[in-house]
Write a structure and sequence with these properties.
The protein has 323 residues and is an alpha/beta fold. It has two domains: 214 residues, Spore Coat Polysaccharide Biosynthesis Protein SpsA, Chain A, CATH 3.90.550; 100 residues. It is 37% helix and 19% strand. The chain contains ten helices and twelve strands. The strands form two sheets. It has an eight-stranded mixed β-sheet with strand order 3-2-1-4-10-6-11-9, with helices on both faces. Strand 1, helix 1 and strand 2 form a beta-alpha-beta unit. The longest helix is centred in the last third of the chain and has 19 residues. It is globular.
């Protein structure tokens, strides 16, 4: 069994040496194989120089691809296209994983060959000197195959596309891709939206082996400067769904509204009218009052808040709208 690990890299000179060392230390049991595809997405710092100095040419598991900067989504898609594994995975070069992260996934893939997606049940987070559990799903949903409605909780948590692996055949056969809008943040969110609508068979492993590292250089912390690109990213995802004849946009709306709410919450000085204008344009009118299948009472309140705000903005006189 071969797993292809795609590593999209852009200006990670502070992290890339540790990331490569982490990948080198990944163990493989009998019949297990790994390939690591490092996509240098036009880094302008010393990232590529450091990669080339690590002597990876002597390790047949590593492939180095250097391209002009086209964004996170394009780098991930290119890595998937270049991969030759039975499964594909994404590793963020500023994060950390246990040495048996991929071998454990392959162990379970052998036990559950029909699984399209294999994920760990939780995620750790490091922020400064603090390490905590970012989320952890209940053990009762682990070690059995699920569809998208069997365990709705997993679609509400941190998207963490990197916290597992995906059947390459399932991804390619269904045309699932990352949106490639340049400069956009949250492209992993729209990837998970596409995945949801293709209804994969999911296996959750009762363990936590991935650590998400927070730092100032992350793209999600620059989302307020990239609102137009975030909007284009969601517009691209909406087009992808429409081309496949999908009429129920409730989950799309849910994830989109939740993301914009997060942008507003994290950026109190942002122009709220600009955000609401984007929400209004993306919401399908017939779905405004329809709850997503994973909504809790608290999320329904938030859903109504954004829906009503968007509708009021649409009805407001033009002279009262910000330009």
């Amino acid at each position: 069994m071969l797993v292809s690990v795609v590593v999209p890299v852009y200006n990670r000179e502070k992290f890339i040496s540790v990331a490569v060392a982490c990948l080198k230390n990944q163990i493989c049991r009998d019949g297990q194989h790994l390939e690591f595809i490092l996509i240098n997405d036009g880094s302008t710092d010393r990232t590529l120089e450091i990669i080339l100095s690590l002597g990876l040419e002597s390790d047949s598991r590593f492939k180095i691809v250097n391209i002009e900067n086209q964004g996170y989504g394009h780098a991930c898609n290119l890595g998937f296209e270049l991969s030759s594994g039975d499964y594909v995975s994404v590793f963020e070069p500023d994060d950390q994983i246990d040495n048996d992260f991929y071998s454990t996934l392959m162990d379970y893939a052998k036990k559950f060959p029909d699984a399209d997606v294999l994920r760990y049940r939780g995620l750790l987070q490091i922020s400064g000197n603090t390490k905590k559990t970012l989320y952890a799903w209940k053990s009762k949903i682990t070690n059995r195959l699920l569809d998208v409605l069997s365990a709705p909780r997993i679609w509400k948590s941190h998207t963490s596309v990197f916290n597992g692996m995906y059947s390459r055949k399932f991804i390619m056969d269904n045309g699932i891709k990352f949106c490639e809008t340049p400069l956009a943040s949250y492209q992993d969110v729209t990837f998970m939206v596409s995945l949801y609508y293709m209804n994969p068979r999911i296996l959750i492993i009762d363990d936590i082996k991935y650590t998400y590292v927070c730092h100032d250089g992350q793209s999600v912390k620059c989302a307020s400067d990239r609102l137009q690109y975030v909007f284009k990213n969601w517009l691209e995802e909406k087009k992808w769904l429409s081309e496949r004849g999908i009429a129920d946009f409730s989950f799309f709306n849910y994830r989109m509204v939740r993301q914009y709410r997060g942008i507003l919450k994290g950026n109190p000085d942002i122009d709220r009218d600009t955000v609401m204008r984007s929400v209004r344009r993306l919401l399908r009118n017939r779905c405004i009052r329809k709850f997503p299948p994973v909504a809790t009472l608290r999320e329904r309140v938030l859903w109504y808040y954004f829906s009503l705000k968007a509708r009021r903005f649409r009805k407001a006189p033009r002279k009262n709208r910000s330009k």
